[in-house]
Specification:
The chain is an alpha/beta fold. It folds into 2 domains: 203 residues, Alpha/Beta hydrolase fold, catalytic domain (Rossmann fold), CATH 3.40.50; 101 residues, no CATH class. The protein contains 11 helices and 8 strands. The two termini are 22 Å apart.
Length: 321
């Protein structure tokens, strides 16, 4: 079913207070008594939406979507206070308890969502029945440098786009582009923030697919998304995602989740989350299956990636039944 599944309107939605200032927006779709799956969106600073239900059979799955702290429809938007990877993981638990779900049949995440999925599975392995990860990113220094650093591989593939991203920053600050953008994205001047957000996101959008569609830049006109995505992503990247180097691939942490069955779906030409990371995870995690998509980059909507994810979710519906 390469076209994916069609869901009705959500049977439940609402806001859930977490911490002292944040409220998470969530929705539930599919079968109320179905196998519970939580969808973890990318970014940081992305958002979940109706299109993300397409992977899951509504006659089988109870699909839970939510926007992470500061992102999407969660409130307050673009807020970096009380916003760390560990707190996002605790939010998944808070949401699970609020919805009276004893255990997730599946945790599904792509890109930053895959990062969170791994961290959640290593923190609460008893709450995860299976893991489906797309475009794996583990926040190692080599991955951070590979995406936005001064010697990035994407910059050699898209030198024109890279030059625009670099030239936005004055020459004297270009030795640390992440710090330079972070300073502007956290400025008190709204015009400075807005301009930096557009260029930060333009570079991201340039790398999303194997075949660049100029229409992807239309997202830059969505000022609310543009601000939240850039500010939160920079917040996490600047702070090394609030994890020690190599945390998610550390042997002792992989050991905690090694029993969990999982699938990794990885575009062979992914310039955002390097295929090397998917390979490293697969070798470390014996209960995983790695699906290479030979004609895809990073986007979940590339035909081969999308079709494989739908297929995997269909297959995993039978796990532990």
């Amino acid at each position: 079913m390469a076209a994916g599944y069609v869901h009705s309107e959500p049977f439940d939605s609402g806001y859930l207070p977490v911490g002292s200032i944040h409220q998470l927006y969530y929705e539930q779709y599919g079968l109320k008594t179905g196998l519970p799956v939580v969808f973890l969106h990318g970014g940081p600073g992305g958002k979940a939406g109706f299109s993300n239900t397409k992977f899951f059979n509504p006659k089988v799955y109870r699909v839970v979507l939510f926007d992470q702290r500061g992102a999407g429809r969660s409130r307050p938007r673009a807020e970096t206070a009380e916003n760390t990877a560990q707190l996002l993981v605790s939010d998944i638990e808070t949401l699970r308890e609020h919805l009276a779900i004893s255990k997730w049949h599946m945790v599904f995440g792509g890109s930053w969502g895959a990062t969170l999925g791994l961290l959640y599975a290593q923190t609460h392995p008893e709450r995860v029945g299976s893991l489906v990860l797309r475009g794996v990113w583990t926040a190692r220094e080599q991955e951070l440098e590979g995406h936005r650093g001064n010697s990035s591989v994407p910059g050699r593939v898209y030198p024109d786009m890279r030059e625009r991203f670099v030239n936005f920053i004055p020459e004297g600050e270009r030795h640390d582009l992440i710090a330079a953008y972070y300073k502007r994205l956290t400025s008190d001047n709204p015009e400075v923030v807005s301009a930096a957000a557009r260029e930060w996101n333009r570079w991201d959008l340039s790398l999303g697919s194997l075949r660049l569609d100029p229409k992807v830049y239309d997202a830059l006109e969505d000022e609310e998304w543009c601000l939240a995505h850039a500010k939160l992503e920079a917040h996490y990247v600047f702070n090394h995602c609030f994890m020690e180097e190599g945390h998610l691939l550390d042997k002792k942490n992989i050991e905690k989740m090694k029993h969990i069955p999982g699938a990794i779906v990885q575009g062979r030409y992914d310039l955002v989350t390097p295929p090397q990371t998917a390979w490293d995870l697969h070798k470390a995690w014996p209960n995983s299956i790695l699906h290479w998509i030979p004609d895809a980059g990073h986007s979940v909507w590339e035909p081969g990636t999308f079709a494989k994810l739908v297929e995997v979710c269909d297959d995993f519906a039978n796990i532990h039944k």
